[in-house]
Amino acid sequence: MIVLCDGVEIGYDDVGTGMPMAFIHGFPHNRTLWAPQVSALVDRARCIAFDLRGFGESSRNGPFSIDQYADDLAMLLRMLGIERTVVAGLSMGGYVAFAFWRRHREMVRALVLADTRAGIDSEETRAKRVALIELAHERGSGAVADGQIVGMIGKSTREKRPALIDDVHRMMGSASVEGIHGALEAMLGRDDSTPTLATIDVPTLVVVGAEDVLTPVREAEILHDAIRGSRLEVIKHAGHVSNLERPAAFNHVLSEFLAALDYA
Predict the structure, then answer these.
(1) Interval 155-174: pLDDT, tens
(2) pLDDT confidence of 6, banded at 50, 70, 90?
(3) How far apart are the two ends of the chain, measured CA to CA in Å?
(4) Per-residue pLDDT, 264
(5) CA separation for the pair 45, 168 (Å, rounded)
(6) What angle separates helix 92-104 from helix 66-79, to the nearest 10 degrees?
(7) What is the rounded distance in angstroms from the CA atom of residue 87 to the CA atom of residue 104?
(8) CB distance 114 to 242 below 8 Å
(9) What is the pTM of this model?
(10) Where are the domains positioned within the chain?
């Protein structure tokens, strides 16, 4: 489905019944990233998976910023009549989840932070993002997917599930150049969310793939240590897109977390 929010078309899925749960994809993904979770949770949650502007079926026009992505989600949820929701973000989606907490915390029932970090980029990472912008304009989104795919997926998955590599590469390669450029600029300009961690006072699940090389386990441990009462789950034999690489394991810990919310 597509809805017009403040002049911007937002592509989204709204399926299932129960506790609302909003899913925010990473870079350079789209909402299909969360298909294994949405399909598994439809009997117990109202699942809202949406495309960040520039990706999937959403508009390609800016402005692009992490705060803008968060505000887009808030607009979408309000249009759908949702006042409070569990917010799940993976990688860049985690950056958006932090911004959503800062800007719209009254709408947050709980947080799921998957394969993400709170801190800003190192100088090396910033240089890589600038180079990716140039690559996207010179050679297109397929070249960006080529350069990102190895780090995106864990070693075990690359060895045992080659078909998933093709699926993820196809999803990444479908991103628009405008969306890629905008998201990279958004990440380059994002706020440091480290001070935000101590303010989080809703139930929080931190998930990370044991083989994640982009946001390693240590980054998840930092989140867990700083967010009071949070739960940390390390998914074995999974990399950066742990929810796709080991969906059954990811869904198990997510379902346990949601079940606990019913009694919180």
Answers:
(1) 999 999 999 999 999 999 99
(2) confident
(3) 32
(4) 56
(5) 25
(6) 70
(7) 11
(8) yes
(9) 0.97
(10) 2-261
What is the sign, positive or negative, of the torsion defined by CA atoms of 247, 252, 253, 259? positive
- For 92, the token pair is 């860049």
Amino acid 74 reads A
Q: Decide which of 3.90.550.10, 1.10.760.10, 3.40.50.1820, 3.10.129.10 is the CATH code for 2-261.
A: 3.40.50.1820
Helix axes 177-188, 92-104, angle to 10 degrees: 60
- Name the pairing type of β-strands 45-50 and 19-24: parallel
- Contact between 245 and 154 under an 8 Å Cβ cutoff? The reply is yes
Which tokens go with 241? 């897109």
d(CA 90, CA 208): 9
Q: CA 201 to CA 193: how far, in whole Å? A: 15
Q: Starting at the edge strand that comes first in sequence, how are the strands of the sheet with 204-209 ordered?
A: 2-5, 8-15, 45-50, 19-24, 85-90, 108-114, 204-209, 231-235
Which among 264, 245, 258 is positioned nearest to 86, based on CA atoms?
A: 258
Is 98 a residue whose pLDDT tops 80? yes
DSSP states along the chain: -EEEETTEEEEEEEE--SEEEEEE--TT--GGGGHHHHHHHTTTEEEEEEPPTTSTTS---S---HHHHHHHHHHHHHHTT---EEEEEETHHHHHHHHHHHHHGGGEEEEEEES--SS---HHHHHHHHHHHHHHHHH-HHHHHHHHHHHHS-HHHHHH-HHHHHHHHHHHHTS-HHHHHHHHHHHHTPPP-GGGGGG--S-EEEEEETT-SSS-HHHHHHHHHHSTT-EEEEETT--TTHHHHSHHHHHHHHHHHHHHHTT-
The pair of structure tokens assigned to 263 is 């009694």
